[in-house]
Design a protein that fits this description.
Blueprint (H helix, E strand, L loop, with lengths): L1 H19 L1 E5 L2 H11 L3 E5 L14 H7 L4 E4 L8 H7 L5 E4 L23 H18 L4 H26 L8 E4 L5 H7 L2 E4 L11 H14 L3 E5 L5 H10 L2 E5 L11 H15 L11
Parallel strand pairs: 1-2, 1-3, 3-4, 5-6, 7-8
Helix pairs in contact: 2-5, 2-6, 5-6, 6-10
Length: 293
């Protein structure tokens, strides 16, 4: 009887511990990974983003909204990435902390405009900054494990700093006058700021954005003048439209993971390595990924 009572007490304690874990829901795969890495065993992370989702078309289903109502925190990219977020926020209880991590980071605008590029995750430095914000928020909600969140955040930040340092060593092999990054849509302004490139997007924020005839004519002139060797397309989209443009200016089409996820790249490390490797190859630099972590 005593042994049974002890087992029941232990079981109850385990259940209470499980219930005590913070519940964090996320709206982007990279935020899911960040929350898992920093929260560790003290945070239960649930991704609302579907496996084959499209960033600029995705919006949570009603059933997902109901589930989020029980969360402690909802993590969003912010900076306009989730146009549905205000409506979702209104449907949630006040107790759910809706955190737009991108809104805590510096804005980087599209060239010649005041429109912010919301794809802040393409900069490892931004990921480290966002991780600090998340760590502090978790510590506020769960002071008992604040030390653990700090340690895990420092490990995560160190990894991001390593990505940034090693990428800079590789990318410096591209001459300064050639550092023009032509992308399908405006998704690499944060990356360009960190690594010394000039961003030149073909379209606007999303892949489906289209410029007018005069804009495209001006773009063709700029591409020819810059003698760009490559135009980068979103890896999850068909490259056919850009192949026509690339042929016009004597460039080749190369893929990049612009929206932060791809079927074969489930971690930030995999996404970042993919992008660095393809940028280097596009600029004619081979055998350069040996020092990437």
């Amino acid at each position: 009887m005593r042994r049974l009572l002890l087992c029941l007490l232990l079981l109850g304690a385990c259940c209470q511990a499980a219930q005590a874990a913070l519940r964090v829901y996320t709206l982007h795969p990279l935020l899911t990974e960040m929350a898992e890495r920093i929260g560790g065993k003290h945070v239960e992370v649930v991704s609302l983003f579907p496996p084959n989702g499209e960033l600029h078309d995705f919006a949570p289903e009603p059933a997902a909204v109901a589930a989020v109502s029980k969360a402690d925190m909802l993590l969003a990219c912010g900076q306009g990435t989730e146009p549905y977020l205000n409506k979702l926020r209104e449907a949630l209880p006040a107790a759910v902390h809706v955190v737009e991590l991108g809104d805590t980071l510096p804005r980087v605008t599209l060239p010649g405009t005041d429109i912010a590029d919301p794809h802040w995750w393409n900069s490892p430095a931004n990921m480290a900054r966002a991780a600090r914000v998340l760590s502090d928020l978790l510590a506020e909600l769960d002071p008992e494990h604040a030390g653990t969140y700090t340690v895990l955040r420092r490990c995560y930040a160190a990894e991001m700093e390593t990505h940034s340092r090693n990428a800079a060593l590789l990318l410096c092999r591209i001459p300064a006058e050639q550092r023009v990054l032509v992308t399908e849509h405006a998704a690499f302004c944060h990356f360009c700021r960190e690594f010394g490139f000039t961003p030149l997007p073909v379209n606007g924020i999303a892949q489906e954005s289209e410029g007018d005839t005069a804009t495209m004519a001006r773009l063709l002139s700029e591409l020819r003048a810059a003698k760009v060797p490559a135009i980068f397309t979103e890896v999850n989209e068909s490259p056919r439209a850009l192949e026509v443009l690339a042929k016009e200016v004597g460039a080749k089409v190369h893929p990049l993971i612009m929206d932060g996820y791809a079927p074969d790249c489930s971690t930030y490390k995999a996404v970042f390595r993919f992008n660095i490797r393809h940028i280097l190859q596009a600029f004619g630099i081979e055998r350069t990924t040996d020092i990437l972590p």
